[in-house]
Design brief:
Oligomer: single chain
Distance between the termini: 37 Å
CATH superfamily of the largest domain: Winged helix-like DNA-binding domain superfamily/Winged helix DNA-binding domain
Number of strands: 6
Helix content: 40-55%
Number of domains: 2
Strand order of the largest sheet: 1-3-2
Length: 143
């Protein structure tokens, strides 16, 4: 999967007349390998552990390129930060967000998806996409 994502990124860059630099590849690889929601700051921190030569602006611009390529999706969870996740999800998923520690839990539920389709049908509404975010306190913070 990682190779496929990097190849797609390479193809996107080529289509825009850009090249896959070593720094872009390192950022993309780190992003795809972590498979979690990361802010630009978090990704920069992880990349810096591998190469201190990579600047924040390069991480920011690379995330923008990944988003433009359809390989990363930015999500805002109400705390003032945009977090990115790989947009290679075959299945749609929703999020539980802890308002204390910021933990983000992904989940899928066929009954919820079915209910959403039913409600949309009731109103003769064609859903093109949706986002479900449930906010609360995770089990660790409640302990």
């Amino acid at each position: 999967m990682l190779k496929k994502m990097l190849d797609q990124f390479q193809n996107y860059l080529s289509s825009k007349g850009l090249r896959m630099t070593g720094q872009r590849e390192l950022i993309a690889r780190t992003f795809f390998e972590n498979q979690r929601h990361m802010s630009t700051e978090e990704l920069h921190h992880r990349v810096q552990k591998i190469s201190s030569q990579v600047g924040y602006a390069t991480v920011y611009r690379t995330l923008k390129l990944l988003s433009d390529a359809g390989l990363a999706a930015g999500r805002s969870f109400g705390d003032g930060f945009t977090r990115y996740e790989p947009d290679n999800q075959i299945e749609h998923h929703d999020h539980l967000i802890c308002t204390r520690c910021g933990a983000i839990i992904e989940f899928e539920n066929d009954r919820i998806e079915s209910l959403q389709k039913s409600v949309a049908g009731q109103y003769r509404f064609e859903v093109t996409h949706h986002v479900m975010e449930l906010y609360g306190i995770c089990s660790k913070c409640r302990s």
